[in-house]
Each structure stands twice: as structure tokens, then as C-alpha cells.
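Record passed on here:
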Amino acid sequence: MFIISENIYEQLIQDGKKALPREAVGLIFGRKEGTSEITESYVAAENISSSQSSFEFDKKFFETAIASAGSSLIALFHTHPNDLPIPSRKDIDGIGDWTHLKHLILSFYGEPKLKVWGIFNSQIVPEPWRIAK
């Protein structure tokens, strides 16, 4: 179970809205408790992709954010401004070495809708999640 704090959930929505029509991106840090992953902080990142319909992290920012976080990187976040919260072929191809992380996609195709994805045996599968009260 991926447990996201209400505050972080609201931050994701706000950052996603601010980035429109481009994709927003960010890093989510937290901890594992048993079979759950619990969010502790979120760091918005600049999307350096030249395309409005894809995302790319700045490597230097990425490394600096991880080094100064104080907790473990547990998820990568990005938005789909005009599509469903399902990983695109570009998303899948860009996962690279980050298969151990959860991947959160927030769609603005209609009302905001968040989906959490995990990667198991080279398959991308939806993960259960909830907002912590």
C-alpha cells in the first residue's frame, strides 16, 4: 500500500495545475513500514524536456535532492495534462534503473486523478494507495 499524506497530495495537484500545459515532475521521499510505503516529503523539479508531452529531470538537481533529502526516495512523480494516468510508452522506456521505485501519475484529463504504479518482473502494475488522514 502506498500511503500519501493529504498535504503532499494537495501539493501534487497544485504543482500539476501550475505546470499546465506542460508535465509537472517531482520526487517523493519517505519510508517503508512493513508492506507499506509512507510519504514524508515531496520536492518539485523542473521539467527540462523540450516537449510539452514528456518529462525529463535535470540530473544535477536529482542528485542534489536525493543527497539532501533526509529520507529515502520512494517514488517519481509526473503529470499527464491531456491523457489518462497510465504510463505511456515514453514513460516505460524512460524508467531505466528506477524499477525499484513507485511511479505516480496525476492526470488532468477531466478531474485530477492519481494512479500509483509499481514494476514487478518487468511488468507495470497498478498499486493500491490511499490518502493518510
